[in-house]
Automatic annotation (TrEMBL):
<dbReference type="InterPro" id="IPR006073">
    <property type="entry name" value="GTP-bd"/>
</dbReference>
<dbReference type="Pfam" id="PF16360">
    <property type="entry name" value="GTP-bdg_M"/>
</dbReference>
<dbReference type="InterPro" id="IPR016496">
    <property type="entry name" value="GTPase_HflX"/>
</dbReference>
<keyword id="KW-0175">Coiled coil</keyword>
<feature type="domain" description="Hflx-type G">
    <location>
        <begin position="209"/>
        <end position="370"/>
    </location>
</feature>
<comment type="subunit">
    <text>Monomer. Associates with the 50S ribosomal subunit.</text>
</comment>
<dbReference type="InterPro" id="IPR027417">
    <property type="entry name" value="P-loop_NTPase"/>
</dbReference>
<feature type="binding site">
    <location>
        <begin position="328"/>
        <end position="331"/>
    </location>
    <ligand>
        <name>GTP</name>
    </ligand>
</feature>
<feature type="binding site">
    <location>
        <begin position="215"/>
        <end position="222"/>
    </location>
    <ligand>
        <name>GTP</name>
    </ligand>
</feature>
<dbReference type="GO" id="GO:0005525">
    <property type="term" value="F:GTP binding"/>
</dbReference>
<comment type="similarity">
    <text>Belongs to the TRAFAC class OBG-HflX-like GTPase superfamily. HflX GTPase family.</text>
</comment>
<keyword id="KW-0547">Nucleotide-binding</keyword>
<dbReference type="Pfam" id="PF19275">
    <property type="entry name" value="HflX_C"/>
</dbReference>
<dbReference type="InterPro" id="IPR032305">
    <property type="entry name" value="GTP-bd_M"/>
</dbReference>
<dbReference type="InterPro" id="IPR025121">
    <property type="entry name" value="GTPase_HflX_N"/>
</dbReference>
<dbReference type="Pfam" id="PF13167">
    <property type="entry name" value="GTP-bdg_N"/>
</dbReference>
<feature type="coiled-coil region">
    <location>
        <begin position="168"/>
        <end position="202"/>
    </location>
</feature>
Length: 434
C-alpha cells in the first residue's frame, strides 16, 4: 500500500489532457488542474510545473503522445521534480510506460486521492475503508502489469526469457491474496455496518432526529459543526481534512435535540471504487432525517461543485431526504444575486453570522411535537419509569407520595402517558367534546 507522500516527494509536475472523445468527467480543465494542485499540497507536495494538453484522442501507449512526453521529461529534469501526476485516469500499461520514459514515479488522480485518504484516516473504520479502496485500485493494475504474458500464452506464443511458468503462477498467487484481502475487508466493513444498524435502530426507537452535513471538500463542513456544537474538530484549509464521520449532540430548543454528523467531503472525478469503499460511512446519509448541504459561496465554481455533491447524494440513495442548502463563507460571496428560498441559508461558520437562522430552519424541519411535562407515577407503576428512561429524555425524578418525573416526551409517549401527566401538556379535544 502507498505510504504517506510527505516522506517521498517534494516537487511534482502536474499533467492533464482534454480530448473530444473523452467524457466531461474524464477531461482535464483549468479548474480541475487547480484542484489537482490543491490535492498535491494536501498530500504534502509542491507543484514544480503544469502541463495542460488538448488533442483529438489520448495516445494508447503514452496517453499524451511522444512529443508531449519529451516536453514533460525536460520539465521534470529542469525543475528537479521527482513525481508526475495526471489529472486523468491512466491504464496500468500507460502508467508503466510513462514511468519508464520519464524516469520518475507516475500517479493518476485516483492514486493521489487514495494516498491522501491513507494519510487522513484515523479510526479503524476509516482505515478499513481506505485499505479496501487501495486493494480494489491495485487489483486491475496487477492484472495489467502481467497482461502481456497472459496474451502471449493465450495466443500460443512463447513467453520471454525469465518470465516462463513462475511469473504467471506468481500473478495468480498475488491475485488470490488480494481477492482474499478484499473479501476479508468487506466482511469487517459489514460488521461495522451491522453495529451502526443497531445504533441507528436505538436512535429511531428514541425518536432522535439525525442531521448529516455534506458538501464539496473544503466547503467548511467541520467549521460549521464546530460552530453549531462547540466540538473540537480540526478545521483546516485542506482538502479531505475529515475522513471519519464525527457525530455530536445539538440542542435546537428545550424540546428538540438532534444528532449531527460531519462526513467526508465530495470531489469531482471521485473514483467509483472510493464511493463503494466509503458506503459504510456515507450510507448514514440515506438514514438521516435532514441533510445540510454546505456550499462554498466564495468559490466561483460553487454551482459545479454543488452539482457533484447532488449527483453523489443520489448515487447513495439519499436524494429524497429533506435538504437545506447552506451557503458558507457568504461574507466573501462575489455574485450579483444571492440564491434565495425556503431551504436556503447564507452564513459564515467562521464568524457565526447567520447560524441562528440555520438553527431556526433545522428546528422547523425537525420539531417532533415533543413537550416537557411533569408526570406523577403511582409506585405500583414503577415499570413506566423504566420505559421513560429508555424512550424519553428524563430530566428529574423525585420520590414523594408518587414518583414525580420531569421529562421530554414525544407525541407517541404523550398519548401513552396521558393519564399521568399533570403539567406541560393538555390532550387535544376530540371533535365530539366541543
Amino acid at each position: 500500500m502507498t505510504e504517506g507522500m510527505t516522506t517521498q516527494i517534494n516537487r511534482a509536475v502536474l499533467v492533464g489532457l482534454s480530448a473530444r472523445c473523452l467524457g466531461e468527467e474524464e477531461n482535464a480543465t483549468e479548474a480541475t488542474m487547480e484542484e489537482l494542485e490543491d490535492l498535491l499540497e494536501t498530500a504534502g507536495g509542491t507543484c514544480a510545473g503544469l502541463v495542460l494538453q488538448s488533442r483529438e484522442a489520448p495516445d494508447p501507449r503514452t496517453f499524451v503522445g511522444e512529443g508531449k512526453v519529451q516536453e514533460i521529461r525536460e520539465l521534470v529534469e529542469g525543475s528537479g521534480a521527482d513525481l508526475v501526476i495526471f489529472d486523468n485516469s491512466l491504464s496500468p500499461s500507460q502508467q508503466r510506460v510513462l514511468s519508464e520514459e520519464l524516469k520518475v514515479a507516475v500517479l493518476d488522480r485516483s492514486a493521489l486521492i487514495l494516498d491522501i485518504f491513507a494519510q487522513r484516516a484515523r479510526t479503524r473504520e476509516g482505515r478499513l475503508q481506505v485499505e479496501l479502496a487501495q486493494y480494489q485500485y491495485l487489483l486491475p493494475r496487477l492484472t495489467g502489469m502481467w497482461g502481456h504474458l497472459v496474451r502471449q500464452t493465450a495466443s500460443g506464443g512463447k513467453s520471454p526469457i525469465g518470465t516462463r511458468g513462475p511469473g504467471e503462477t506468481q500473478l495468480e498467487t498475488d491475485r488470490r491474496h488480494i481477492r482474499r484481502k478484499i473479501s476479508k475487508l468487506k466482511e469487517e466493513l459489514e460488521e461495522v455496518r451491522r453495529v451502526r444498524g443497531v445504533q441507528r435502530e436505538r436512535r429511531i426507537k428514541n425518536e432522535v432526529p439525525v442531521v448529516a452535513i455534506v458538501g464539496y471538500t473544503n466547503a467548511g463542513k467541520s467549521t460549521l459543526l464546530n460552530r453549531l456544537t462547540g466540538a473540537d474538530i480540526p478545521a483546516n484549509n485542506r482538502l479531505f481534512d475529515t475522513l471519519d464521520t464525527t457525530t455530536r449532540t445539538l440542542e435546537i430548543s428545550d424540546t428538540c435535540t438532534v444528532l449531527i454528523s460531519d462526513t467526508v467531503g465530495f470531489i469531482s472525478k471521485l473514483p467509483h471504487h472510493l464511493v463503494e469503499a466509503f458506503k459504510a460511512t456515507l450510507e448514514e446519509l440515506s438514514y438521516a432525517d435532514l441533510l445540510l448541504h454546505v456550499i462554498d459561496a466564495s468559490n466561483p465554481l460553487w454551482r459545479d461543485q454543488a452539482e457533484v455533491v447532488e449527483k453523489l447524494i443520489a448515487q447513495l440513495g439519499a436524494d429524497q431526504t429533506p435538504c437545506i442548502d447552506v451557503f458558507n463563507k457568504s461574507d466573501r460571496y462575489t455574485g450579483e444575486l444571492m440564491p434565495h428560498g425556503e431551504n436556503i441559508v447564507f452564513l459564515s461558520a467562521k464568524t457565526g453570522r447567520g447560524v441562528d437562522d440555520l438553527l431556526r430552519k433545522i428546528g422547523d424541519r425537525l420539531d417532533t411535537g415533543a413537550h416537557r411535562v411533569v408526570l406523577h407515577l403511582p409506585y405500583d407503576q414503577g415499570g413506566l419509569l423504566e420505559a421513560l428512561y429508555q424512550e424519553a429524555k428524563v430530566e428529574q425524578v423525585e420520590y414523594a407520595e408518587t414518583i414525580q418525573v420531569t421529562a421530554v416526551l414525544t407525541p407517541v409517549l404523550l398519548g401513552r402517558m396521558r393519564a399521568y401527566i399533570v403539567e406541560g401538556w393538555t390532550p387535544p379535544k376530540e371533535p365530539w367534546e366541543d
